[in-house]
Design goal:
Layout: E1 6-9, E2 16-17, H1 19-28, H2 34-43, H3 45-51, H4 57-67, H5 75-84, E3 87-88, H6 90-101, E4 105-110, H7 114-124, E5 132-135, H8 148-158, E6 165-169, H9 172-180, E7 184-187, H10 191-202
Parallel strand pairs: 1-4, 1-6, 4-5, 6-7
Antiparallel strand pairs: 2-3
Helix pairs in contact: 1-2, 1-5, 2-3, 5-7
């Protein structure tokens, strides 16, 4: 049996399902290929800088608007449309909150940008479901998964050794990094599969 004191969730693709992909779908509606939208919105260096808190929100959204020629759109209008695409993973929330009632720590660890977190918090008040969070843009983080540094901060904030922490992520490179650092981990596929993996681990 493995003792686990904390369960950690990625946000994009785990706690929130489909939102990022739906927003990309929305942006393709301006006549660009999906590949171009992904390059501008997901892969450009400005995106990584913004997620690390090293690029201002205004500069980031100006980059999106200019490079995708989103005439008539503003930072504020795009954030509203982005938030419209998101839904909480309700069955995941139900499970993790039941673990919370049993005394487990529930945390989030995510590569994200501050204005997305603020807008989704405004819509869902989702931070109430977490005891701790580690976000890439924070001044004492400023790095992206799978860099080991962000996971060291996670363990430090939880005040637990890695082997007492279970984290699920939808990216295999992040799962491999967690494994190499001694965390318990699972690649997220679905809530039933995640629960099964967790129960097998902690049986």
């Amino acid at each position: 049996m493995t003792n686990v004191d904390a369960v950690v969730l990625d946000l994009e693709g785990v706690y929130f399902e489909h939102g990022d992909q739906r927003f990309i779908d929305f942006l393709t509606g301006y006549g660009h290929s999906r590949e171009k939208v992904i390059q501008v919105y997901k892969r450009h260096n400005k995106v990584h800088l913004h997620k690390r808190g090293e690029e201002s929100s205004e500069s980031f959204w100006d980059h999106i608007i200019r490079n995708l020629e989103l005439r008539g759109e503003t930072k504020e209008s795009l954030l509203e449309k982005m938030a419209e695409q998101y839904e909480e993973n309700l069955s995941l929330i139900e499970w993790t909150q039941s673990l919370r009632k049993q005394g487990k720590i529930i945390a989030a660890c995510s590569n994200t940008y501050i204005d997305r977190v603020e807008k989704l918090q405004e819509k869902f008040d989702f931070l109430r479901n977490f005891d701790h969070t580690v976000f890439s843009y924070e001044p004492d983080v400023r790095t992206l998964k799978p860099n080991p540094y962000i996971f060291h901060i996670l363990a430090y904030r939880l005040n637990l050794p890695p082997e007492r922490i279970f984290m699920t992520d939808d990216r295999l490179d992040n799962v491999h990094a967690l494994d190499s650092l001694g965390f318990k981990s699972a690649l997220y596929k679905s809530v039933p599969e995640l629960i099964q993996e967790y129960e097998e681990l902690t049986r």
